[in-house]
Structure prediction request, 167 residues.
Amino acid sequence: MCRHFLEDYGLETRIGRYHNVYGPFGTYAGGHEKVPAAACRKIIEAIQNKSLQVEIWGDGKQLRSFTHISDCIDGTMRLIDSNHAKPLNIGSSEMISINDVYQTIIEVNGLQKYSIQFSYNLDAPQGVRGRSSDNTECRRVLEWEPSISFRAGIKETFQWIAKELNF
Prediction:
């Protein structure tokens, strides 16, 4: 459709394909949150209610890539400023398992003392086994790729959600 609008009306467009954007000020409850925010909330709630139990959907071995909102904005601005009219992935290629999402949250926020236990709900939605962003074209076209590691981004995200939940 965008190509046709360019051909028919001269309307230039940019098409960013975003991959699992997360970070502070995002949704962290209610069923529409991404895995990083849901994991932060679940860990905080498990500590606050003293159950120290967290349910993970699936077996936790699903692989994903997560893009910090700051990288998403930076990539989007670079795309807007480019003359690239085809779809372009704006995402991280850093693969992380769902189990590692939870472990990273615990590690970078010093929560090991709580000895949180995980259970796996194999009947819950899991999505595909693995998915990440192929950034080959993004590096070529924009000479750019995300710079915020998952460890740094999830620490910032956890701290914001913790403040929101009075933790």
In short: The mean pLDDT is 95. The first strand starts at residue 15 and ends at 18. Residues 15-164 form a domain with the Rossmann fold fold (CATH 3.40.50.720).
